[in-house]
């Protein structure tokens, strides 16, 4: 398995040396595997956004190092290579728009890279198609729904042909429909284009079918594992202040009420089958 992004003993303090210093990351080591869908979860202030911004060198470690697609993010000569490969999508799509026409907005990144006109057109086509927004090419993003805007923001990042997408609570401001639209697009990009995805979210449902989940708390990775490893570890869930996906929470509550299941419940079908047997 090759690694997309490697954190080696990374520490980071905001306002280091000052009275208001905050230790945001404490000796974090983590590998994001190439092609995987990694969910990064943890309570407010646990360090997720700091970790995300380090993935493309927006923040540099105080201690340790971050290597993205073979490039040390602290090397100024290659920071552009890192930025091309790792695209960040943030929470508020309005802050990520730069132009008033969709295609111009999406072309902005590659234009800055000096990509040729014809290739820019191809990239804009590809990006719009990937997020299912082809028919909005000439529209203005400002009137769109949150989900649509966020898909345009993702298209803008895709036009850079990144190898990894890091989404920092990119669904947080959306309604359930918009959230699903964005998540579906991201899942498709991961499956069909092989783009490595790091999804930061407070919605545990969104982490359910990731390949792997990393749980952060107080600037550290508490545990990483499959969704099953994580969501069946109730002690960890409580310690990290997470809320189980509804279905798994129901199973947990039933167990705590003394219901004996014959197996670990992880899907709706499993819960229904087990409940039917009990009845
Ligand atoms: N620009 C900043 N200046 C000072 N402290 C900061 C800054 N950004 C974050 N912090 C602090 O660093 C710690 C980690 O913050 P970070 O934003 O990485 O957490 P997070 O897990 O993304 O939280 P949330 O779920 O609320 O987005 C927190 O204590 C936070 O208050
Ligand atoms: Mg954050």
Q: Rounded to an integer, what's the Rg over CA atoms?
A: 20 Å
Any low-confidence stretches, pLDDT <50, length ≥5?
none
β-sheet strand percentage: 15-25%
Count every helix, treating DSSP H or I runs of 4 or more residues as helices: 11
Helix content: 25-40%
Tally of discrete structural domains: 2
CATH top level label of the largest domain: Alpha Beta
For this structure, the quaternary state is single chain
Backbone structural class: alpha/beta
- What characteristic shape results from the CA principal axes? globular
Total count of strands: 10
Side-by-side strand order of the widest sheet: 6-7-8-3-9-10
Look at the structure and give the mean pLDDT.
Answer: 94
Q: Which ligands, by name, code or SMILES, are bound?
A: adenosine-5'-triphosphate, magnesium ion
Secondary-structure element sequence? EEEHEEHEHHHEHEHEEHHHH
CATH topology of the largest domain: Rossmann fold
Distance between the termini: 45 Å
The CATH architecture of the largest domain is 3-Layer(aba) Sandwich
The CATH superfamily title of the largest domain:
P-loop containing nucleotide triphosphate hydrolases
Plain-language structure description:
There is one protein chain. This protein is α/β, with parallel strands linked by helices and 279 residues long. It folds into 2 domains: 3-242, Rossmann fold (3-Layer(aba) Sandwich), CATH 3.40.50.300; 245-279, no CATH class. Helix content is 39%, strand content 23%. It has helices at residues 48-55, 79-85, 102-112, 117-130, 146-158, 176-193, 204-207, 227-231, 234-239, 246-256, 268-278, and strands at residues 3-14, 22-33, 37-42, 63-68, 71-72, 86-89, 164-168, 196-200, 212-217, 220-225. It has a 6-stranded mixed sheet, sandwiched between helices. A 4-stranded antiparallel sheet has the order 2-1-4-5, covered by helices on one side. β1 and β2 form a beta hairpin. The mean pLDDT is 94. Residues 48-49, 168 line the site of magnesium ion (MG). Adenosine-5'-triphosphate (ATP) is lined by residues 14-15, 22, 24, 42, 44-50.
């Amino acid at each position: 398995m090759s690694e997309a992004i490697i954190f080696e003993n990374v520490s980071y303090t905001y306002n280091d040396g000052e009275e208001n210093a905050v230790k945001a990351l404490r000796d974090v080591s983590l590998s994001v595997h190439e092609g995987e869908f990694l969910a990064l979860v943890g309570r407010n202030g646990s360090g997720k956004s700091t970790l995300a911004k380090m993935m493309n060198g927006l923040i540099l470690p105080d201690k340790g190092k971050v290597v993205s697609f073979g490039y040390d993010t602290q090397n100024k000569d290659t920071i552009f290579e890192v930025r091309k490969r790792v695209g960040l999508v943030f929470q508020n799509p309005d802050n990520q728009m730069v132009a008033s026409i969709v295609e111009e907005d999406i072309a902005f990144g590659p234009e800055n890279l000096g990509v040729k006109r014809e290739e820019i057109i191809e990239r804009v086509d590809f990006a719009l198609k990937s997020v299912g927004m082809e028919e909005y090419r000439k529209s203005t993003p400002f009137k769109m729904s949150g989900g649509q805007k966020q898909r345009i923001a993702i298209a803008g990042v895709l036009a850079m042909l990144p190898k990894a997408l890091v989404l920092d609570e990119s669904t947080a401001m959306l309604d359930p429909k918009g959230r699903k639209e964005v998540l579906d697009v991201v899942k498709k990009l991961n499956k069909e284009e092989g783009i490595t995805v790091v999804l930061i979210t407070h919605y545990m449902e969104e982490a359910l079918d990731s390949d792997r989940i990393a749980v952060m708390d107080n600037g550290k990775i508490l545990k990483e594992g499959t969704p099953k490893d994580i969501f069946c570890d109730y002690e960890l869930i409580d310690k990290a202040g997470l809320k189980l996906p509804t279905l798994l929470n129901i199973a947990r509550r039933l167990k705590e009420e003394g219901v004996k299941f014959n197996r670990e419940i992880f899907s709706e079908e499993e819960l229904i089958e087990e409940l039917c047997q009990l009845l």
